[in-house]
Design brief:
12 helices, alpha/beta, 12 strands, 324 residues, single chain
């Protein structure tokens, strides 16, 4: 049986608390699991509202933070136990695209320096001529030309150009997985479509998998194969994206999809919304369902027992007592 390229096993991240901690423990991510296989390149969406744990998950995968519990393995080696050479390979094969590319670039360096620095650091070409060809090829993949942007500084590029340069920079390293954290939320509609199309082509033609982190369910529906929906650090629903969007099972996911505005001026938005406080909603243990205070279908068992993931149909699972 093929071993996963990336295996996230019960990953949990808790902030605060501890022996000398003055604040209560805050569970940012709670026992999250996911396998991504190299032979089956897919776009996997991690969806949820702000504070659901999406960015925490990306930070754990990119080694910006360490798991409090559980572990993340790449090619069957835990990130925490990688040797120097294994970590260098991991940094090359797992790349990232961030929401705001302007914060990633050093404003004192031209685009040419930013691109060639990657080539030099990972020693992926034998000479300057090969490096120039690789940079030009990567830029052409995202619809850019070196003659137009390489001698410019980041502030001289548009937001869409900076985002595409980041995609080209990641593509140069021939990654097997790209973590894309809200990659299209800061660009206009035409560039959004272009970047999403680039992601689809890289998946299909280059066999590159994506972990697409977003709160935008409409773009997830367009491009992703699988979806994991998070609520306050817990996975409430997972499976084939089209099945979740078209037939949501969990009450939270149903509300999330119902909240998408209808493009009809006759349909008025419901502005009378009352939510429990975050202190009540964000439980620091696994006693009950975290959606309990907001759930219109809640039962007594929801407050006392954490729901297990249940298979409702092929390629569709939900963590809800309604289905147990």
């Amino acid at each position: 049986m093929e071993k996963p390229l990336l295996s996230i096993q019960q990953a949990t991240k808790v902030y605060g608390g501890g022996f000398l901690g003055s604040s209560k423990p805050f569970v940012a991510l709670d026992h999250f699991s996911l396998d991504i296989h190299e032979s089956q390149a897919k776009i996997v969406t991690i969806a949820g509202e702000s504070g659901s744990g999406k960015t925490t998950l990306s930070n754990l995968i990119l080694s910006f933070a360490a798991c409090t519990e559980g572990q993340i393995l790449y090619r069957d080696v835990a990130l925490s136990r990688m040797s120097r050479s294994q970590r260098i390979r991991y940094r090359q094969e797992v790349q990232a695209i961030f929401q705001d590319p302007y914060e990633v670039y050093n404003p004192f360096y031209r685009v040419s320096h930013i691109m060639h620095m990657v080539v030099r650091h990972f020693h992926i070409t034998r000479n300057r001529h090969e490096a120039d060809e690789l940079v030009e090829r990567a830029l052409s993949v995202v619809g850019l030309r070196g003659s137009e942007i390489l001698e410019k500084y980041p502030h001289q590029l548009s937001g869409g150009q900076r985002q595409r340069v980041m995609v080209a920079r990641a593509y140069m390293l021939s990654p097997r997985l790209i973590v894309a954290d809200e990659p299209v939320s800061a660009v206009d509609a035409s560039l959004r479509a272009m970047i999403l199309d680039i992601m689809l082509r890289l998946r299909t033609e280059q066999k590159i998998s994506f972990l697409y982190i977003t709160h935008d369910l409409s773009t997830a529906y367009q491009i992703s194969d699988l979806m994991y929906v998070l609520f306050q650090g817990t996975t409430v629903e997972r499976g084939v994206t089209s099945r979740i969007i078209e037939n949501p099972q969990h009450p939270y996911v149903q509300q999330l999809i119902d909240s998408i505005p209808v493009p009809d001026p006759k349909v008025k938005w419901d502005l009378d919304i009352t939510l429990p406080s975050e202190e009540v909603m964000r439980m620091t243990n696994r006693v009950g369902c975290r959606f309990y205070p907001r759930c219109p279908k809640r039962m007594d068992i929801c407050a006392s027992t954490f729901p297990k993931m249940v298979k409702t149909e092929e390629g569709h699972e939900v963590a809800c007592h309604l289905y147990q």
